[in-house]
Design brief:
Jelly Rolls; four-stranded antiparallel beta sheet; 2 helices; binds fe (ii) ion; globular; alpha+beta; seven-stranded antiparallel beta sheet; 206 residues
């Protein structure tokens, strides 16, 4: 018997229809007046200020809806259903021709995207394995080579519907390729656990 073992896989949670159409519409109108922060790289992308769920009933409703999924992914990452907090959220509006450059989310453990509009297939969120370091690189990327989970450099998330949510470890590099479709609206968020404990060496986050 031979067995291919998927060693050290990365957990990611995709939740179809987690946010219902009414809440999607409410969030879109909530964001509409707040998209005042231009993206530094793409003129066709703008963001809201950083938003906090505390004291905002609508965002609190959203974070209540998201929380079980954050705990579920966190259980895979840290092996335990810990108390988590969604500490910030923000809105993103991507016009035709806009893109989101490669980045990850600092000072966070779980990040997520809430899709609030239809997305053109060109603007599917892309996750990247890495951008290289100071070592020489070898590759066998060519027309004859098959791409699979062990050699892929990039993974494109499935085409989302409004209300779908994607959660991932915050260290993962990701981007949105150039949007060849109509306006694409999403929210992003960052979450942290209350406390991590390594055999008594514990650390709390606020
Ligand atoms: Fe992001």
């Amino acid at each position: 018997m031979t067995e291919m073992i998927a060693l050290f896989p990365t957990p990611m949670l995709r939740c179809e229809g987690l946010v219902d159409a009414t809440l999607v519409a409410q969030l879109r109108s909530h964001l509409q007046v707040q998209m005042t922060v231009p993206n530094v790289q793409s003129a066709q992308l703008s963001h809201s200020q950083i938003l906090y769920p505390e004291g905002d009933a609508l965002l609190q409703t959203l974070t209540d809806r998201l929380m079980p999924t954050v705990v579920e992914l966190g259980e895979q990452i840290f092996g335990q259903a810990l108390p988590w907090r969604i500490k910030e959220l923000w809105g993103n509006v991507l016009q035709t021709g806009g893109y989101q450059a490669v980045h990850n989310h600092a000072n966070s453990f779980i990040s997520g995207i809430v899709y609030l509009s239809v997305s053109h297939p060109s603007s599917r969120t892309a996750f990247l394995r890495g951008l290289g370091g100071r070592d020489f690189a070898f590759s066998n990327t060519n027309r004859q080579a098959q791409t699979g989970p062990y050699n892929a450099e990039k993974w494109l998330a499935p085409e989302p519907e409004p209300g779908d949510v994607l959660l991932f470890p915050s260290y993962l590099l990701h981007e949105v390729p150039i949007n060849h479709g109509a306006e694409r609206v999403s929210m992003a968020f960052n979450a942290i656990p209350e406390r991590l404990d390594a055999w008594g060496y514990s650390i709390g986050f606020q």
